[in-house]
C-alpha cells in the first residue's frame, strides 16, 4: 500500500501544469467520506496559489456551517451562486455563466458528484466542470470515493447505503492530478463526536449507521487502493505511449433482456477492463427471441439504460445479431478479437444446467484461446 507522501504531488506541481496548458487542467481531492478535509485542502491550495499571483475564484463551496471550512475561505473571491426556487425552497447552484464571464485562471468547485437543481442547464455538476475545462479554466475539485459509478455495488455491500449521486469513473481517470486526503478512522470519529462534521444530533445517527468504524476502515482502504491504481494506470499509459503498439486485451460482456443484475455486471466488467488497460464492449445479444420488437417496452427501456450505463463506464455499447446466444457471442469474439468474456453466474435451475448446459459451460467448451470469467453479482 503506498504511503501518503508517495501519492501526494509536490504543492507546486499543479502550478507548473496550469502554466503550460491552454485547455483547463483538473485536480481532484479524493476522500473516503465526508469530514476528512477535502474542502479544507482545496481552499488551502486556492489560497496558496493566490499568494503566488494566480487568479483564483471559488465557483461553489459547501461549508455546511463548519467553522474551520468557512475560515479557510479567507480572502478568496466567491463568484455568487445562482439561486433557484424549487418547491418552496431556495437552492444554491454554481453559476457557470458568471464564472465564464469572470474567467479566473483557477476555479474551486466543491462536491463534483453533486446533482444540480431541476431547471439547471445540466443535470450534474461534473458536466458544468467539463464546460469550464473546455473554456480553458483550470479546476480544483473534491469528491468522495463512494460516488464513483463502478464502485456502487461494493459501497452498498460495505455500508448498506445506496449512493444516489454518482459520476462516471472516466471523470476521475482523466484528471491531471488526484490527491488522496486521508484521515485515520479514529481521528475522523473524534472529529464527528466533536461536532466538526455534523451537528451533535445528526452525528450520533451517522455513527450508528454510515460512520461505523468498520465502514470507515473499508472505505479508507478502497480510497487508497483506487488512488494507487490511478497513479499506476497513468504510468502504464505513459509507458505505452513510448513503446511500440501491441495487440491489446479486449473485454466483452453480453447482455439480454433477462440479465438478472446487468448494472452490477457492467461495473465489474469496467473495473476489470480498467485493470487490464483494455477496451471493453457491452453487447446486447439480439437473437430471434431477443428481437427488440418482441420484448416489452419495460425491457427495451432497461436495455437502453444498461447500454447507456456501459457508455458512462467507458465501455462501447453495441447490439450484435445472430441465430443463437452462444454462436452469436463467439462470432462477436472472432470479429472483434476479444480475449476475455465476462458473464454473470447462471440463475438457471441446476437440473436445466446439467441437461442443456449453461451458456457459460458451452462457451468454455468452444472458446479456445479466450478467457471466460464468471462473476457473482
TrEMBL record:
Keywords: Kinase, Transferase, Two-component regulatory system. Residues 23-229 form the Signal transduction histidine kinase osmosensitive K+ channel sensor N-terminal domain. Residues 249-375 form the UspA domain. It holds the Pfam family Usp. CDD domains: USP_KdpD-like. Coiled coil: none annotated. This is Universal stress protein. It comes from Paludisphaera mucosa.
Amino acid at each position: 500500500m503506498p504511503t501518503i507522501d508517495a501519492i501526494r504531488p509536490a504543492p507546486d506541481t499543479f502550478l507548473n501544469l496550469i502554466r503550460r496548458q491552454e485547455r483547463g487542467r483538473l485536480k481532484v481531492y479524493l476522500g473516503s467520506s465526508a469530514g476528512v478535509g477535502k474542502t479544507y485542502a482545496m481552499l488551502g491550495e486556492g489560497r496558496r496559489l493566490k499568494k503566488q499571483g494566480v487568479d483564483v475564484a471559488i465557483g461553489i463551496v459547501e461549508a455546511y456551517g463548519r467553522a474551520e471550512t468557512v475560515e479557510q475561505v479567507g480572502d478568496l473571491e466567491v463568484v455568487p451562486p445562482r439561486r433557484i426556487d424549487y418547491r418552496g425552497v431556495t437552492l444554491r447552484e454554481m453559476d457557470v455563466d458568471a464564472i465564464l464571464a469572470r474567467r479566473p485562471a483557477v476555479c474551486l468547485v466543491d462536491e463534483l458528484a453533486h446533482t444540480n437543481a431541476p431547471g439547471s442547464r445540466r443535470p450534474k455538476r461534473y458536466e458544468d466542470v467539463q464546460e469550464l475545462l473546455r473554456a480553458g479554466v483550470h479546476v480544483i475539485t473534491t469528491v468522495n470515493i463512494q460516488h464513483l459509478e463502478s464502485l456502487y455495488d461494493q459501497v452498498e455491500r460495505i455500508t448498506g447505503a445506496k449512493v444516489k449521486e454518482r459520476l462516471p469513473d472516466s471523470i476521475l481517470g482523466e484528471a491531471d492530478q488526484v490527491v488522496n486526503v486521508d484521515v485515520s478512522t479514529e481521528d475522523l470519529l473524534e472529529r464527528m463526536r466533536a461536532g466538526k462534521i455534523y451537528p451533535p444530533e445528526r452525528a450520533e445517527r451517522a455513527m450508528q449507521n454510515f460512520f461505523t468504524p468498520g465502514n470507515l476502515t473499508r472505505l479508507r482502504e478502497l480510497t487508497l487502493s483506487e488512488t494507487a491504481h490511478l497513479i499506476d494506470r497513468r504510468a502504464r499509459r505513459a509507458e505505452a505511449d513510448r513503446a511500440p503498439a501491441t495487440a491489446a486485451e479486449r473485454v466483452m460482456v453480453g447482455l439480454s433482456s433477462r440479465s438478472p443484475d446487468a448494472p452490477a455486471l457492467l461495473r465489474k466488467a469496467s473495473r476489470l477492463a480498467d485493470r487490464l488497460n483494455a477496451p471493453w464492449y457491452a453487447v446486447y445479444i439480439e437473437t430471434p427471441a431477443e428481437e427488440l420488437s418482441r420484448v416489452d417496452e419495460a425491457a427495451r427501456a432497461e436495455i437502453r439504460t444498461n447500454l447507456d450505463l456501459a457508455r458512462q463506464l467507458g465501455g462501447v455499447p453495441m447490439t450484435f445479431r445472430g441465430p443463437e446466444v452462444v454462436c452469436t457471442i463467439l462470432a462477436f469474439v472472432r470479429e472483434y478479437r476479444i480475449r476475455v468474456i465476462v458473464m454473470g453466474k447462471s440463475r438457471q435451475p441446476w437440473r436445466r444446467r446439467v441437461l442443456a448446459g449453461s451458456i457459460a459451460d458451452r462457451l468454455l467448451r468452444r472458446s479456445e484461446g479466450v478467457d471466460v470469467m464468471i462473476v457473482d453479482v
